[in-house]
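Progress note, sequence design subtask.
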């Protein structure tokens, strides 16, 4: 028995196809989305934004085999299994949100593996977080241009602070950062704030005579920041508050007298700057965890639980200042909160700054993709035109799932050989024939139509015993007599 344990532990994990129709969030949307859509549509024809409705409807098709799938085949043992399509949505689907979170540190529009593997060099990284007063969050919620202006002010102030605390840095020194714009809070509320992962130091172009410093890379020299004490962070907060308030006054969003009053408020005047989290340069796993946190979706499926037939409980990761951690919501209230957090199409969720910006002159030397100095080889003129460094493509679906669940999906569960995709099945008759042959449901889950009053109101009416005066009898007696006759 002692010798069998290592063999069992070494056996690779088996990938299990997800079944979203069995999750609480899917059943909630399936049963109540049509009702919420009907209630959210006003009498004058107004309705929720089209991208919100589209995100929910695509989520109801995500991971469902009846809407099409891919076939994976093992050439060794002829085993095969089906892989359902994903919706690739933002904000509603927990699975696709997790994939994006892992991939944003993968391409400019995805999440955390790319930033760790291809963007951030092995240098210390500090997280800077900026939150603004509630009075200013209202203007930031829907104004992407204002969000960019506030973010640029904050990163500019942080860069000046790093230049002052980086010995050896000159006038041309620049910092590098990846900033994440969060439009949500931990309790499913709308709360615009900024998480910025900033390399803890500044960069300068290296001298051409060939310096041999330990922290120098080809074409660039790094100067690490030191003595970033609470006084330095408080100075960043004060300067950012002053410049942000001036921006709001200049844009006509608040009055000058109101800005002066807010500048005199105690405890930062509602502005909060935190820079306590710092990741060392050799801690790549810690950096990926930080980037996953910054790229996280608005809600987590494991925090959602069923309280009773009419209420859901969402456990907030952080304690709320105005109540307990657990949010008790009806299904319609939960859908309404999630719908408010769905991002608009074609809006950037994170941005590059400084030497990590796309067109920065030092980007190729700073990022982990910087090509090594390779002596020229005798190649043809056609090959000379090709670049020597490898291009960054989107991460493969299988590699992302392996990074998330620590189980490679294209690994045969029978012989543990690598499988391959042999076909994509989209035609409805073929889909139905294959699913019926393997015993899977060939019909997608039924979406409940819009309903009338909630079930608990109907139950109250039933308890009244069909008494025509049940609603009047249930009303409490008035505290005082009141003459309802109109006298004028």
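Output:
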């Amino acid at each position: 028995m002692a010798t069998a344990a290592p063999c069992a532990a070494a056996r690779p994990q088996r990938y299990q196809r997800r079944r979203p129709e069995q999750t609480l969030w899917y059943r909630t949307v399936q049963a109540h989305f049509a009702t919420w859509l009907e209630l959210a549509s006003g009498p004058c024809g107004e309705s929720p934004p089209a991208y919100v409705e589209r995100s929910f409807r695509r989520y109801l098709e995500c991971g469902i085999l009846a809407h099409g799938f891919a076939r994976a085949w093992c050439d060794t043992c002829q085993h095969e299994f089906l892989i359902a399509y994903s919706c690739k949505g933002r904000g509603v689907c927990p699975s696709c949100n997790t994939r994006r979170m892992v991939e944003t540190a993968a391409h400019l529009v995805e999440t955390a593996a790319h930033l760790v593997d291809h963007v951030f060099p092995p240098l210390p990284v500090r997280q800077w977080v900026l939150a603004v007063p509630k009075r200013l969050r209202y203007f930031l919620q829907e104004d992407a241009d204002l969000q960019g202006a506030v973010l640029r002010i904050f990163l500019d102030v942080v860069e000046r602070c790093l230049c002052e605390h980086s010995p050896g840095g000159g006038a041309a020194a620049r910092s590098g950062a990846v900033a994440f714009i969060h439009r949500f809070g931990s309790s499913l509320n709308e709360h615009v704030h900024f998480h910025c992962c900033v390399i803890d130091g500044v960069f300068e172009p290296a001298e051409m005579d060939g310096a041999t410093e330990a922290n120098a890379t080809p074409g660039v020299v790094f100067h690490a920041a030191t003595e970033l004490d609470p006084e330095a962070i408080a100075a960043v907060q004060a300067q950012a508050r002053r410049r942000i308030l001036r921006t709001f006054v200049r844009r006509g969003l608040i009055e000058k007298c109101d800005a002066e009053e807010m500048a005199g408020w105690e405890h930062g005047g509602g502005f909060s700057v935190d820079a306590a989290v710092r990741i060392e340069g050799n801690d790549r796993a810690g950096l990926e965890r930080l980037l996953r946190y910054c790229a996280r979706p608005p809600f987590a499926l494991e925090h959602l639980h069923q309280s009773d037939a009419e209420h859901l409980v969402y456990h907030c990761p952080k304690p709320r200042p105005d109540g307990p951690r657990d949010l008790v919501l009806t299904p319609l209230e939960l859908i309404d909160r999630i719908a408010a957090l769905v991002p608009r199409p074609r809006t950037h969720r994170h941005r590059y700054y400084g030497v990590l910006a796309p067109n920065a002159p030092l980007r190729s030397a700073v990022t982990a993709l910087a090509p090594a100095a390779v002596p020229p080889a005798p190649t043809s003129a056609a090959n000379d035109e090709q670049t020597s460094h490898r291009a960054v493509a989107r991460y493969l679906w299988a590699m992302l799932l392996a990074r998330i669940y620590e189980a490679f999906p294209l690994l045969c569960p029978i012989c543990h050989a690598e499988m391959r995709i042999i076909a994509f099945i989209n035609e409805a008759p073929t889909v139905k024939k294959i699913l019926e042959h393997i015993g899977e449901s060939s019909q997608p889950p039924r979406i409940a139509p819009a309903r009338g009053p909630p079930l608990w109101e109907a139950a109250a009416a039933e308890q009244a015993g069909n008494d025509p005066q049940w609603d009047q009898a249930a009303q409490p007696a008035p505290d005082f007599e009141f003459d309802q006759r109109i006298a004028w």
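The radius of gyration is 28 Å. Work on this subtask will continue into the next period as scheduled.
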